[in-house]
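Table 4 source record.
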Amino acid sequence: DGLLRQYLLNSTRYDKHVRPGKSNRTVAPGPADDVTVQLNVQNLRSVDEIGMTFTVDGYLRVVWNDHRLQWVDSSIGHSMIFRDTTDQWTPSVYFERISEIILGAKDDFGESIQWSSNGDMWWSRQIQATISCKMNYGRLPFDVQACVLLLGIYDELASGVRIQWIDSNEALGNNWRESIKPTNVFQVSKIIANDLVTQFPSGNYSYAKACIHFERISINMQTDVIFTCVIVVLAYLGLWIDRASAPARVSLSLLCFVIQFANMNSVTSRLPPSRTYPWSTCFAFVGLAFNILCFCEYVVVNYGVQMLAQVQSKKKAEEERVRAAAALEMKRREKLARRVAREAAAKRQQEQEPPGRMELKPSASRMPRRVPAAAIERLTSRDSDGGVARSTRASSIAHAAAAVVAVGGRARRLVGGVAARVADEGRVAARGLDD
């Protein structure tokens, strides 16, 4: 095998810097070489949600045909396996969006190449690759991340080397559903593989593309959603606690707020910075807002209760004042009614007494007017005989009549009959004097 290898790789007949399709051409580029690849994934090591990367372990298999390395001696065998590939042409397969890659092993035992007598090359290397993935957490925790795995030929155009998958259904292994074990958070639910040619300013390049769908299986995020619902329900139940139990309601509201805030920070800390908020974060924020509203509602209700108590106190004081004023007015009216009743009783008693027994008592405020002196002199001058007794009697009667006339309305009503009789006697006496 070693002698055959040395013969086939002799520099006089083999140039490792020239691809197989162009080796016999001096001017024309020659036919394109077909390179088929397979990334046989044995382990999904991790999916980093913050770093937006995923890491896989497996084998990178590259297959092509190099007609310059054919042989026909059946005694040698139909295939040979070597570990060194530095002396022959190999396609420059690379990964797009790669963060870190390890090909082969440190002791050089993680790589081998198999030669077939017809020129087919089967190159296999151990690989551990960390690949970047643009993840979208808008539907978290019900999200499915679609990560693109892109393999290309770095130093050849598509017209020179075409890369493609060995089989689109086996791009990541012959039985990838069983070989790719799920992580604690994600599992591979679907793989879509295809070949494409991408145009760049320098030309068209060939790529083998595989879209890997990572479906979230962790119940941690779902638990966060359920936990948010429980805290919101507790905050709502606090509204039914007696409003007089201020310590219980305040403690429950603040406790629900603190727990909900910590839960929202926990969800956010597990995600990378983003311009949009994930669904779970929005849900937690709505729960936090509800807790804040519950606390504000209790503050407003407590303030309203205090204002209502003040209004009721003022109303009660006003009612007491009105009630006291009404009681005083009632007492005043009762006192007035008793006085009126006494006066009415006295009046009825006076009206029932005989007129002869009634005494004339002039009012102290209204004294009887005195009879003018000229009238008295006129009466006395008419008595030519100068009878002293008659003149004295006439004068007394005149004074009595004047006093009766001067008595007020009330005295006149009480002693009307007596006053009329006295007045008649006075007039009779006056006529006698005139005669």
